[in-house]
Design goal:
With 293 residues, the chain is an alpha/beta fold. It contains 13 helices and six strands. Helix content is 47%, strand content 12%. Helix 2 crosses helix 3 and helix 4 packs antiparallel against helix 5. The termini are far apart.
Length: 293
Amino acid sequence: MGYKGPISQRQRRFGEELQLLRTAAGLSAPEAGALVGMKGPAVSHTEAGRITLNPERLEIWLDAYGCNDPAYRKILAEMGRSTGKGWWSSFEGKVPDLSLDLAELEDRTTRFDNYETLYVPGLLQLPEYAEALYKDGYRNGPWDLTAAVQFRMDRQCVIDSQREFRFVIHEAALRMLFPGPDVMRAQLVHLLDVAERPNVTIQILPFAAPRKPSQSGPFLLCDPGCVDLSTIVLDVPGSAEHSGDPESIAGYLWKFQQLSEIALPAIDATSARGHSSRNSWGLLQYLLYPLQA
């Protein structure tokens, strides 16, 4: 069955994985199609994300392609079965499709590694901060500001799950005063509050970092429970780039590890008080001081 409407990032990734597996197995599209009663063009459409694939055919292909990783098979099957519907569906036509893709990606992610340079990560933003961030770009655009802010807040439902979140935030993002001092003060306090959750780690990369950061721009690494199906999300003007290339994934895993090593120790209020060494909790308190009423 063919998909109606634009092809989502999940659909594209599912098809790309099938094509990579088939190519690695040395099979042509017609040869793969013959295994499941499909013609070559139908295989190509499936690998382009244009048509669905039933679970039985997927299992036959995975067996024929020599795919024996149970975690990979399970998660790929879930990607193929997904209808693409979720809480984000009510925002169709109200926010850009790339935002819907991101929400769907986050919904199937079990571990988030997020590095931000100029802004507080979207999953940690207060409504007032998000509104200040969006208002200029949405004033004359096709999208509704109220819907965009609400969408960002609804995305944060994943924080309430037992998934793992690791954030490295550059000090520059925490010194930005575009939302106004009152909003920025509340935002910094919110970071301290969220960091108390056992599944959330927040580190600050200070201006005084001892080494050059391994990455100059922000990125989000989403791991669904199988590193081979992880996705890197990079912000580019007016869009977002998604990559599942194994070399890229390995490279950004290394970059995030390097960023974590040169960033200050994670926010931990229980041990930070009275601690003699510099840490993320102490830097946030320092940044909060001039914003106090």
